[in-house]
Write a structure and sequence with these properties.
Layout (H helix, E strand, L loop, with lengths): L1 H13 L4 H15 L2 E2 L8 E2 H29 L2 H4 L8 H32 L19 H25 L3 H18 L5 H6 L1 H6 L4 H14 L4 H25 L4
Parallel strand pairs: 1-2
Helix pairs in contact: 1-5, 2-3, 2-5, 3-5, 3-6, 3-7, 3-10, 6-10, 6-11, 10-11
Length: 256
Amino acid sequence: MWSLYKLELRTVIKSPSMMMPLLFPVILSFFYSTLLVTSNNPSGGIDAQLGFIILLSMGALSSGIMGFGFRFMNMKNSVLLRRIGASKITKSEVLGAIVLASITVLFIQFTWDSIIWTFLSAIHFGNFNGNTIDFSWAALNFKYLIPGISLLILASYSMGIFIVSIGKNTEQYQAIAILYFSSSMFLSGLMIPTLAEHDVWTHYIGWFLSVSWAMDFMRHGIEGSGDVYSLWLDVLMIVFYTSLFSGLAVKFLEWD
């Protein structure tokens, strides 16, 4: 599987689509810089620490839905996967190679996110209202950040393979994936955090999106709010959605 992993990773890195994980965080960084709040100007919006977590969460979500899922769908519909039984390579090894390559690209994007956010903070980049990015690594609680991102990755990849299992072709996958991705961005409060907090119906819809629970878990780490029961509820809901869509994917996925 190691050879398959290196081949898949080399293909992804050389693909023009690799520009998206590198370009998208830059666009989002400039977008969120207009919503920032600092200790010098606490007038609304989001803070720099939450903005960084949103960047990581967007990367995890897009990696599972728009990255891994698309590559697996293309592989599923290719002649190669249908004839792979004639070789010593198993379909599980192919799937594992795609997952590992996607995770590697995701960590490259995480590193790029960190560089961008640290750089913008160092040059005191901000908006026209005088708010600047005041990002601090010390303000991040990695005890919540790392498990939260890990759970979101699992949930996103399980959703990606579930959409592959119900999509008959690339066009169907693309339609379902974009619908879910857009819903997760806007209705869960990921893209605009204040929307889910102030709009009641959006808040309740967010209960059905795993990214909402992951963001809630990681936000506790920044704000220091929430009790142990609410944190365990976040974890249990993410595990529930991951198990649900993984099980449905196993049931409906057609390899041949």
